[in-house]
Amino acid sequence: MSADQDTFDVVVVGAGLAGLTAALTAAEAGAHVALLEKGAEYGGSSSRSGGGMVFVCTDLQEKAGVEDSLDALRDDLMRASQGRAQPEIIDAYNNTGSHSGYNVVRHHLLELGETGGYFGRVVSGGTHQGSIRGILDGTIDTAGIDSTVLETEEAARPELRTALRTIAVIGPSPIPPVVVPRTLDPALRTRLRDLLLNMGADPAGRAVLAAGRMTRFVPVADADYDPIRAMARRAEATGFLTLR
Ligand SMILES: Cc1cc2nc3c(=O)[nH]c(=O)nc-3n(C[C@H](O)[C@H](O)[C@H](O)COP(=O)(O)OP(=O)(O)OC[C@H]3O[C@@H](n4cnc5c(N)ncnc54)[C@H](O)[C@@H]3O)c2cc1C
User: Fold this and answer.
1) What's the 54 CA to ligand 1 centre distance in angstroms?
2) Please, are residues 143 and 134 in contact by the beta-carbon 8 Å criterion?
3) Same domain, 44 and 70
4) Number of domains in the chain
5) Which domain holds residue 68?
6) What is the reported pLDDT for 195?
7) Which residues line ligand 1 (CB under 6 A)?
8) pLDDT tens digit string along 9-53?
9) Alpha helices, DSSP H only, in 83-127?
10) Ligand 1 centroid vs 119 CA: distance in angstroms?
11) Which residue, by CA, sits nearest to atom 22 of ligand 1?
């Protein structure tokens, strides 16, 4: 090999869709590119892909009156894999829908003017418990943890109080609501609602609430969650779409 043959501006490892696209883009920009493929043939899993694309809660769905949700996507992905998909990996795709684990942190950075790349690397913990695990095993340094989740985890595992350090408290934000499917019988929904709202007046109910570190349930309206929407819209309006 001559000197200019083994000296490259860009070395791409893997000749699947991502690698081929990266190599082509770099070559088109004038770079001298090496594309390395360990397999006997290039194409990787890209060559087996059905080419289907997954979207959730799009403007088009909203205009067409199609109800969708991140939970529905999670269920679809789990069903498509016949239950074999790893929840953590799906959550890596889903969890930008978390308020306390994503939206509120992004908004806080926006308020600080730190939109250009505050963190060295952003990965998904999947769930609040997953993020706590990541901090404990040293794979992540910091995470946005919902305070109610943190308090519950700390009550169950007091050692977390010394293992984790709270570096900032952001909020308060509206607490997650209790939700039921729209398809639930309205009479049953009303009954459940009444039961929850009256638990605090009953000694047995109070014991259940205390186990969940709660005093009582209160009625909420959709507008109570406007502060969460406002935070998301503010970040999106400034083009700060991705936590970084
Ligand atoms: C049967 C099937 C159906 C699918 N259907 C869909 C679908 O409908 N919609 C969808 O969005 N996604 C689908 N996917 C997923 C999709 O194909 C992959 O997410 C996507 O192709 C990944 O592209 P990639 O370039 O990152 O990886 P790949 O296409 O897998 O390419 C990676 C390449 O890197 C090579 N490589 C790995 N390690 C090394 C190394 N150390 N040195 C050199 N080379 C290396 C591999 O041999 C491979 O050629 C499907 C996947 C499969 C298997």
Assistant:
1) 16
2) yes
3) no
4) 4
5) 59-85
6) 95
7) 13-19, 36-39, 42, 44-46, 48-53
8) 999 999 999 999 999 999 999 999 999 999 999 999 999 888 878
9) 87-94, 104-112
10) 28
11) 46
